[in-house]
Amino acid sequence: MKEKILVTGGAGYIGSHTAVELIERGYEVVIIDDLSNSEETVLDGIESITGTRPDLAVFDICDEAKLELFFQAHPDIAAIIHFAAAKAVGESVSRPLHYYRNNILSLVNLLEVLPTTQAKGIVFSSSCTVYGQPDTLPVTEEEPVKKALSPYGNTKQICEEILQDAIASGADYRTIALRYFNPIGAHPSAKIGELPRGVPNNLVPFITQTGAGLREKIQIFGDDYNTPDGTCVRDYIHVVDLAKAHVIATERILKKTAPEQYEFFNLGTGKGSSVKEIVDTFEKVSGKELPKTISPRRAGDVEAVYADTRRANEVLGWKSELGLEEMISSAWAWEKSIRGIES
């Protein structure tokens, strides 16, 4: 019998790609998503790729009563992958209370109900934002967690502390926090990908939407950083590589192979790329030159951050495989697919 995995936020960008990888590894997937930043049609893409349509429960997991009812209906969930969270750095600066309520309460509700279930543990979607502006690059897991530069980053720090405190209190489940860097790209089938509502907060969908004619020009927020070309540097990772890491972490929890109940890992490529490099790569793979403008620095943005991935490579046995051109090409193929643009 297939083991059942709950994916919260599973209709979202990373969640949907992880659902695909789980199904292709032989797991049964159930999804909770309030569809506040996603579309139910994403399930069509998952089904088209895998031949299986995961069950979807539409509600906000901040609603404790509905969450309890859900677990009563699904008593056989073996593990949880928790993506459901608000995630835009800039928006979190202007709407901090929304981020604190949504991101923290959702995790607390899951952890309160977890001991009443058969689930062996939870894989938590964390972020490199927990490091703030790190002292050294690349960032190892030994880098101190600094004061967050945004409410979004602070919610991830607080959530990791909650997970550690829950384990220290005697909880018998296992947790793995995956601190990932900047996921981009789309499934190679171009049947699922990043689909933000309204104006994108993330760089790559803004670029692809500009290429598709939906946006007038690219805004580069700051070109006076202490980086090789003056623009922010990030560690961009293909969303499919990231999804595979979540499957590996889930299996580690299911098999109870970890020596400790709480673990955390950086997920990235180990290489930093600047905003300008991302724009240049899109222009190369698409054959389109994009109009650009330089805007002031954006509140909450870190100058440069990229990962040391050795712990994930050695302990999880995971390594990123896809390069920058593959990331950007797949994102552009997805954009063209949803806009009906001929190749």
UniProtKB/TrEMBL annotation:
Pathway: Carbohydrate metabolism; galactose metabolism. Its cofactor is NAD(+). It holds the Pfam family GDP_Man_Dehyd. Keywords: Carbohydrate metabolism, Isomerase, NAD. Gene3D superfamilies: NAD(P)-binding Rossmann-like Domain, UDP-galactose 4-epimerase, domain 1. GO terms for biological process: galactose metabolic process. CDD domains: UDP_G4E_1_SDR_e. It catalyses: UDP-alpha-D-glucose = UDP-alpha-D-galactose. Homodimer. Belongs to the NAD(P)-dependent epimerase/dehydratase family. This is UDP-glucose 4-epimerase.
